[in-house]
Design goal:
alpha+beta, 4-stranded antiparallel sheet, globular, 2 domains
Length: 178
């Protein structure tokens, strides 16, 4: 890469630059409304750009959930939230990398759960068939939820898919599934 290309702002045409941002403030006292907002942001898996500024890649679902949360925050005494649509003009790769880092952590948690479950019992008993199928279904559901949020193709998805496949095939190979 030439030095002049390295000095230009980072903006690749294959990565959408449009994001939804929510600037918000929630009083910490009383604690219940603050914790409610905190849990909802955690559930939404937003990217925290900085304290009080959450981001999601633009999309119909993202706009609806952030709009609903912003409305809720504005209804809290002392709370305020503003929803913005923004085009990232420089360093979009950094923002995408931060978003992918969070998705990779979710994929890694699925791999870890598979390894812990598979490592507990290499030969599951017949009585565990339903339990094993439920665990596989739960991990597959978690994978699907993360994949829905994975707007930019985080690199650890393949590891999570393989861990579930390995766990499911081990379950079948050991003769547990009827």
């Amino acid at each position: 890469m030439s030095s002049s290309a390295a000095q230009q702002p980072s903006h690749r045409s294959d990565i959408p630059a449009a994001w939804l941002l929510m600037s918000y403030q929630v009083p910490r006292s009383p604690a219940a409304p603050y914790m409610n907002v905190y849990r909802r942001l955690k559930t939404l898996k937003v990217l925290h750009v900085r304290p009080g500024l959450a981001a999601l890649p633009e999309g119909a679902d993202a706009e609806e959930v952030l709009w609903t949360l912003a409305t809720h925050i504005n209804s809290i005494e002392g709370g305020s939230a503003t929803l913005l649509r923004a085009d990232v003009l420089n360093d979009v790769d950094h923002l995408v990398a931060a978003y992918n880092h969070e998705r990779n952590a979710e994929y890694d948690a699925i791999v870890e759960a598979c390894e812990q479950t598979w490592g507990r019992r290499r030969r599951p008993a017949r009585a565990d068939d339903l339990t094993q199928r439920r665990r596989i279904a739960r991990m597959t559901e978690q994978l699907n939820e993360v994949t829905e949020r994975d707007a930019f193709g985080a690199s650890h998805r393949a590891f999570a898919v393989e861990a579930i496949r390995k766990h499911a095939s081990s379950h079948t190979r050991n003769g547990v599934r009827s």
